[in-house]
Amino acid sequence: MTGSTTIRVLLVDDQELVRAGFRMLIDSQPDLSVVGEAGDGQEAVAALTHGGTEADVVLMDVRMPRMDGVEATGLIAGRESAPRVIVLTTFDLDEYAFAAIRAGAAAFLLKDARPEDLLTAIRTVHAGDSVVAPSTTRRLLEHFAASAPSTSTPAAAEQRLAVLTEREREVLTLVGRGLSNTEIAETFVVAEATVKTHVGRLLAKTGSRDRVQLVVLAYETGLVGR
Question: Which residue in 20, 40, 48, 212 has its CB near the most CB atoms, within 10 A?
Fold first, then answer.
């Protein structure tokens, strides 16, 4: 962090005008700062890997020349202490955005989202949460879950779930359906802290980076959406 409250943002989009608009919005906030821009995924990866740019959050377009946002997200998310990636797209149901979510993006957001929604998304993912709004990321997953080829065999999928307790499977199913910790706690009539503990164990046991990855896992293993 460049300061105790400053969230550093890297903008990645092949349209300079789009980047300029995002920069104006983000730099208008006292707790946010744009630390760099890139015109495609290759530039973004280079800036973060060799260019000395340190970012907490990356706003990543998915459709770009040379290296698109999907490949770039996978390379960035795979790094140690990687910044959080928010995927930006013009299309609500976009196979590129779906692939980027599976590659490790923490959020999916439309470019025509309200400015306050974008700012909230940046702060939310930086705080360690993920943006899994029923009208965006979850619907995207639902749309492609049935048609997208599975990344593992049924046996391999079941093996990923074998380490979970019955209650952890139940929690994973509800996470996959888009329920918040508060809603899950109400469903099981337990304290929210108990649900947070279950989610933490799910992340550790499944090797998932965040809540979005748990949602993807719930779909890919057939707990939800198939």
Answer: 212
- Residue 153 makes CB contacts below 8 A (sequence gap 6+) with none
pLDDT per residue as tens digits for the range 128-164: 766 555 455 666 666 666 555 555 555 666 777 889 9
Nearest to 103 by CA among 139, 128, 73, 138: 73
Which of these, 166, 154, 123, lies nearest to 222 by C-alpha position?
154
Cα-flanking dihedrals φ and ψ of residue 196, to 5°?
-60, -40
Helix, strand, coil percentages (3-state) for the chain, rounded to 5, are 50, 15, 35
Residues near 215 by beta carbon (within 8 Å), at least 6 away in sequence: 132, 137, 138, 141, 175, 176, 178, 224
For 167-213, the DSSP string reads: HHHHHHHHHHTT--HHHHHHHHT--HHHHHHHHHHHHHHHT-SSHHH
Q: Which amino acid, residue 119?
A: L
Rounded average pLDDT over 108-121: 87
Structure tokens of 126?
Answer: 């930086």
Dihedral sign, Cα of residue 48, residue 78, residue 199, residue 88: positive
Asked if 81 contacts 34 with a C-beta cutoff of 8 angstroms, the reply is no
What is the Cα–Cα distance from 184 to 174, expressed in whole angstroms? 7
Q: Which residues are within 8 A (CB) of 16 and not within 5 positions of it... i.e. 6 or more apart?
A: 39
